[in-house]
Structures are given as C-alpha cells and as structure tokens.
Amino acid sequence: MGSSMANGMPAGDGMTPVDSMPGMSIPVWNSAYFAAMFLMWAVMMVGMMLPSVAPTVLIYSLVAKQAANKGTPVAPTSAFVGGYLAVWIGFSLVATTGQYLLDRASLLTEMMASNSNVLVACLLLVAGAWQLAPLKDQCLRHCRSPFEFISQNWQSGLSGAVRMGVRHGIYCLGCCWAIMALLFVGGVMNLLWIAALSIFVLLEKILPGAGNSRRITGAAMIIVGIAVLI
C-alpha cells in the first residue's frame, strides 16, 4: 500500500494517482480505501491488545463460571471482550483518519512510516511525556490489577459485562494510545515494529516494577525525540 508522497509532482488535490512515475503506487483515498485501512487498523489493534488483556479476561471467565455453578446467571465472557474491543475499534477509526491526514500531507512512506524528522520527534516526545504522566500511571495500575478491577467494577447482566469491558478498554487505551501512535515511526506495515510494540505493551502490564520502567522508557523516548529534532 503506497503513500501519497510525490515530491515535486503535480497531483491536484493529492488524492489521485500520478501516472508519470512508473512503479510508484499512490492510494486513492475513497470510501473503499478508507474502509480497507480501517479494517487493517482494527485487525491490528485486536491482535496487539488481546494478549495484554488475557489475564483480565481469564479472571472474568473464572468468576462467571463460579457464579454459573452457583446458579447465578452471568453474561458470557464474549460480552466483556466485545466491550473491550469496541474501544480499540473506535481508536482504529481515529488512527485511520490520522493516516489519511498524514498521507494527504505527504508525510508517510510506502511502509506508512513518517518521512519527516519533525513528525518522528513529535511522536517520540508525546509518547515519552505520556509515559511520565500521572494519568498514565493510574490507567496502568488498573490494567496491572485484573482481579481488583473485576471486583471493584463488577456489573451484572449482559449490558453490565459490556460496560465493564468498555471501562477496562478505556483504561487500556489510556495506557497505550501514545505507544500505538509510534507505529507511524517504525512503519504501520513493519511487522517487526508491530511485534516490538506489542511485546512492549505486554511486558509493561505484567512485569513487576512497571512504575520505574515507564519512567526509564519515557525519559529514553524524550531523549531520542530531542536528538532527532536537533
């Protein structure tokens, strides 16, 4: 999937193919292409985030099973997971819109990575600053304590399970949205970069000492961002 980067080429509004450059693939951002990109982001977010939410899903499933054994009707685990994924599917819509705007501004390569040092620096600085933010710490605490989250936020019924999933998804989004934005640094189509960020998110949620590690990674992102900028 190509980008709309075409230095020095007349491209009208920037959204139509340029035939004068053979071998260069420039996407036409129509509704079908937007839908395809949205689907790509949605699948990618599901694949990246499900491993990190697995402990919470497992605990919900165990609680639901125990309740069912006692004759108490409980919504299926799929309702909780559906609410959680709905948050990330919503994020996928925002990410697709961001990709469109960056592509239109000719700021992406064919691998959907930034071709601008300024943009790379800004993404790293924002991600680093968010790593150090108190709100990130609050969201991370909820994500790192699945049993506590389930016990404190339990709601009965199908709609209750969905709402629990949505709430947990919001906390997870608060942890990870800035990290997901770094996909535009290494490339949205770069499988190794996707895997690296997925592992980073997973380790941040399950390893002890996450508070200290997030400060270290946040500082490192800021230092690299400043270095890229200057």
Question: If you had to describe this structure to a student in words, what would you say it looks like?
Answer:
The protein is mainly alpha-helical and 230 residues long. The chain has one domain (31-65, 74-229). The protein is 73% helix and 0% strand. It contains nine helices and no strands. The chain has helices at 31-69, 77-104, 117-132, 134-144, 146-153, 157-181, 183-186, 191-206, 210-229. Helix 3 (117-132) packs antiparallel against helix 9. The longest helix is centred in the first third of the chain and has 39 residues, at 31-69. Mean pLDDT is 86; it is low at 1-24.
Low-confidence stretches: 1-24
| SSE order | HHHHHHHHH
How many angstroms separate the termini?
31 Å
Instruction: Provide the structure class.
Output: mainly alpha
Indicate how many domains the architecture comprises.
1
Count the helices. How many? Answer: 9
Biggest β-sheet description: none
**What portion of residues belong to β-strands?**
under 5%
How would the global form be characterised? globular
Computed Rg: 20 Å
Mean pLDDT: 86
Number of beta-strand segments? 0
Q: Level of helix content?
A: over 70%
Strands, helices and their partners?
Blueprint lengths: L30 H39 L7 H28 L12 H16 L1 H11 L1 H8 L3 H25 L1 H4 L4 H16 L3 H20 L1
Helix pairs in contact: 1-2, 1-5, 1-8, 2-6, 3-6, 3-9, 4-6
Would you summarize the structure shown here?
The chain is an all-alpha fold. The protein has helices at 31-69, 77-104, 117-132, 134-144, 146-153, 157-181, 183-186, 191-206, 210-229.
Salient structural properties:
9 helices, 73% helix, globular, mainly alpha, 230 residues, single chain
